[in-house]
Amino acid sequence: MTDRPTACLALADGTIFLGRGFGATGEAVAELCFNTAMTGYQEIMTDPSYAGQVVTFTFPHVGNVGVTPEDDEAAEPVAAGIVVKWDPTEPSNWRATRDLDGWLASRGRIGIGGVDTRRLTRAIRQQGAPHVALAHDPHGDFDIEALVAKARAFEGLVGMDLARDVTTAQSYRWSETKWAWPDGYGSQDTHKYKVVALDYGAKRNILRSLAHVGCDVTVLPATATADDIRALGPDGVFLSNGPGDPAATGEYAVPVIREMVEDGLPVFGICLGHQMLAMALGAQTIKMNHGHHGANHPVKRSRDGKVEITSMNHGFTVDSQTLPDGVEETHISLFDGSNCGIRLSGKPVFSVQYHPEASPGPHDSAYLFDDFAAAMDERKRDAP
Ligand SMILES: NC(=O)CC[C@H](N)C(=O)O
Q1: CB 115 within 8 A of CB 20
Q2: Core-most of 190, 234, 266, 338, by most CB within 10 Å?
Q3: What angle do CA 216, 218, 224 make, to 5 degrees?
Q4: Is residue 313 marked as binding?
Q5: In this structure, are 186 and 236 located in the same domain?
Q6: Which residues pair with 314 in a beta bridge?
Q7: Do 115 and 242 sit in the same domain of this protein?
């Protein structure tokens, strides 16, 4: 092997990173974000919320435990590409069914290794999430100017509705609970509550977590109408995570969510679902400089001051200045004070910006699934 670079990452400002390609050959144009998680690269690459984004990992050892279908958060990797410091090694883990390189190659996702990811991360923090073109060519034939031009031409995630691309085409039932929950959480009583989960790009571990607390989950496409949901007679409605700009997805989803709130149903949202619930209640979202992507973000719970260490992946945020009267801010980020949770006062309607289902990340916030179950119990008790 020669030292000739076989992969190129071109930023829209003309900065070029050369490295060794792995995974698929070809090109990808996307927004670039950094993720600080030390584990969970497979869950991150298959999290549908990463559609339209290339992920650079600040942790240098990526790929060394291979991949296993058990860790897929969706059927396919969804992130557009991956940037790492050290080239992925052969997997060293009994759970691995294949290596990262071959897995990415078979699924059309491009990787670049040998990049100074600390320099790249500093650039992202300073200038905001850049638009990039990532190319992998085994002969190292790159037209660098053309790559920079493609990165510049990328329109960015603002105004982009990507939930329609990643949502399920058909509705389906979800019943798998298999997941190691911390002791004491979850009813283990299956099919206790009928829940409709609106799929804007749902991670599987969210559906597992709902099933774990006793939900019989029917997953509906992002474009489901209020009547589609009512026809199933749910005890509660769940709003999933997902990619793209909440304001764009919200054009069709927000009015439906508002109707569910008006129907008096318990509603629980995560990440994109949180942002769209906030919009349905009258708030607005804004694009962040470089977002929050990691597995150790501290969040303060307003009701008792408790700090949760959370998993995060978002590039937009709810502007807490726009929260109307009657909508409480329940959680805030201890990194930058941004909004991390809301509740409609006196109603079983709440959501969080972070990921209580982890995958990857800590389990501090798993209680939120129990809170949703408790809200559905209460409604059943109060029903005439
Ligand atoms: N994980 C998510 O649901 C992400 C939500 C939204 N696409 C954002 O980037 O903020």
Answers
A1: no
A2: 266
A3: 150
A4: yes
A5: yes
A6: 292
A7: no
